[in-house]
Amino acid sequence: MTDIHFYHNAEDLLGVTCHLAVRAFRSGRKVSVLLPDDAVAHQFDQMLWSRPATDFLPHTHFSSPLAAETPITLGDAPPAEGWPHDDVLINLAAEVPPDYARFKMVVEVVGTDESLKVPARNRWRHYASEGHTPSAHNTAAS
Asked: What are the chain's domains?
C-alpha cells in the first residue's frame, strides 16, 4: 500500500519541495513532482537548475523522451502517456493525483494559507477513505 505523508505549514512550498526531492534523490529514489500550474512548474525547474554544480539534480519534464531514465521528473499535469516512475510522487496540485496508488510513496506539501489547507484536508480524507493512514509532518517545527 502507498505510504502517504503530508508536510504542512510550509512557508516556502517550492523550497520544502526541493528539499524533499533532494532527500529522496540522495537516498536513491526516483521522484515525480506534480505542480499546480505551468508557471509554478517553470519556477521549480529554474530552482533546480540554479543549484550549485556540486549539488546538481538531474531532472526533466514528464513529457521528455528522457523522463523514464531521469531521477526527477516534473510537470503541471499528470502525463497522458503515464507516469515515468512509480517510486515517489510529490504533489503540490489541489486534487488527489490520478493513479496515486501505483506509487510507493505520495508526499503532499501544504502551505500556511487557508486556501491551500482546505483542499489538503480533502485530500487527507480521500486517502483515509481509501484505507491509507496518512502521516503528518510539521515543517514549521523543523
From this structure: 3-141 (3.40.50.10110)
